[in-house]
Amino acid sequence: MHNPWIKYTVRFTALVLLQVLVLNNINLGGYIHPAVYVLFILLLPVRMNKNLVMLVAFFTGLSIDYFGNTPGLHAGASVLLAFARPGVLSLFFKPIDFGKKEEPGLRKTGWSGFTRYTFVLVLLHHSALFIFETLDFSALHLTLLRILLSSLVSTLGIWW
Asked: pTM score, two decimals?
């Protein structure tokens, strides 16, 4: 697709529909909540305006919140992911020079680099999401288990 607006609209729609129609309705033992919609934020162009990335992340998370009846949880976690994204990109891909409209995909970063980039940001997203959701540290070990398992499954889902 040569028109980026069409490409990102199709990607956004497909990932949000996959998330709200399929993944949000799958019960994997109560501890695993895959979130592949974050791939939309992960694949935004590297040199895109940081404020615009955070705004797009907010509306992406808000879309998931709207359909999942989770007021602001996904929006907050998605904005945190978008905020941390430039730092993680520079941490893992310092020698790589990304073009103006280039995405941090497999072709540019390689399998190992993309996996690290994805897992770290998904882990951050899920940490914020589940800590915002529970706001209770009495069962911290269960929250940490949910974060780890959901992050692993989400990263695998993004790869799939």
From this structure: 0.92
